[in-house]
């Protein structure tokens, strides 16, 4: 198996780091070598967050070079554009179809992006979109949105769903497992619609 590169991007508080932890655990449970890195930025204030997971037979570095991500998993629309430079020419994009106002825009440091939808369509003509926030809300807890995304992500990675569920059981507190596994299943189902 070639080394597979996944970049997970979004803003602080969306569960990006937990999702990348679970992906890394899935790859390890599958018997692969795994490396992971993360940059928090101003994560606690809604700033940009990125986590990168690499897995394969032998992985030497946790850092993914620009233009080499096989998957770009974005938890927010604007972050999908911000991190475009990471995606390989034949890479795939999974995007949570939600808008969050960045701190830099709400504080007046940068203008809002007016033509976001047009720019997304131009950059990513074959993007997989999921409304993870809406799905999580329908389950009664918006905080499980990241597991909805994990479920969708599981459909485009080389790992069986049961391996994902085992990794989630190992990583999540016992009292949260049932809700999060339900969110995971909803994310898988949403990609088939």
Q: Would you summarize the structure shown here?
A:
By secondary structure, this protein is α/β, with parallel strands linked by helices. Helix content is 39%, strand content 22%.
Task: Tell me what the structure shows.
The chain is globular and about 45 Å long. With 193 residues, the protein is an alpha/beta fold. Helix 1 (16-29) packs parallel to helix 6 (145-154), helix 1 crosses helix 7 (161-171) and helix 6 crosses helix 8. The relative contact order is 0.17. The two termini are 30 Å apart. The chain is built from eight helices and six strands, in the order βαβββαβααβαααα. The chain has one domain: 3-Layer(aba) Sandwich (Pyruvate-ferredoxin Oxidoreductase, domain 3), CATH 3.40.920. A six-stranded mixed beta sheet has the order 2-3-1-4-5-6.
């Amino acid at each position: 198996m070639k080394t597979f590169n996944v970049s997970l991007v979004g803003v602080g508080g969306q569960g990006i780091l937990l999702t990348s932890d679970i992906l890394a655990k899935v790859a390890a449970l599958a018997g692969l070598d795994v490396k992971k890195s993360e940059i928090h930025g101003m994560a606690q204030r809604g700033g940009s967050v990125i986590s990168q997971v690499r897995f394969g037979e032998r992985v030497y570095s946790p850092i993914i070079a620009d233009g080499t991500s096989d998957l770009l998993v974005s938890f927010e629309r604007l972050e999908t554009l911000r991190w475009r430079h990471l995606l390989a020419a034949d890479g795939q994009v999974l995007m949570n179809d939600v808008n969050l106002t960045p701190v830099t825009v709400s504080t007046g440091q940068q203008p809002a992006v007016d033509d976001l939808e047009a720019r997304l369509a131009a950059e990513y003509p074959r993007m997989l979109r999921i409304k993870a926030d809406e799905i999580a809300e329908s389950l009664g807890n918006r905080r499980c949105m990241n597991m909805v995304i994990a479920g969708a992500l599981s459909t485009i990675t080389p790992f069986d769903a049961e391996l994902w569920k085992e990794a989630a059981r190992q990583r999540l507190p016992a009292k949260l497992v049932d809700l999060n596994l339900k969110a995971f299943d909803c994310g898988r189902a949403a990609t088939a619609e």
